[in-house]
Design a protein that fits this description.
α1 packs antiparallel against α2. With 71 residues, this protein is mainly alpha-helical. Helices cover 82% and strands 0% of the residues. The chain is elongated and about 50 Å long.
């Protein structure tokens, strides 16, 4: 499907993409932190907190990079 020429829908698509990237980064970071707490280190809740923090930083960095690619 070709990109929309309507600026409203193009912007909406970019916003949904950035929101999805932020959410995915938080889910992956939290999941890895939970797995580290549960199966590797038994350091609950610090693995989860660290994973969520790293996921948030990663998500914001991805959002920043995506915003820099906008025309």
């Amino acid at each position: 499907m070709p990109p929309s020429t309507d600026p409203f829908y193009a912007g909406l698509g970019q916003a949904v993409r950035i929101g999805t990237e932020l959410l995915a980064a938080l889910i992956v970071g939290g999941g890895l932190g939970w797995l580290a707490d549960t199966y590797l280190f038994a350091s609950a809740p610090w693995g989860l907190v660290t994973g969520l923090a790293l996921g948030a930083v990663s998500g914001v960095l991805n959002a920043y990079r995506a915003a820099q690619r906008w025309k």
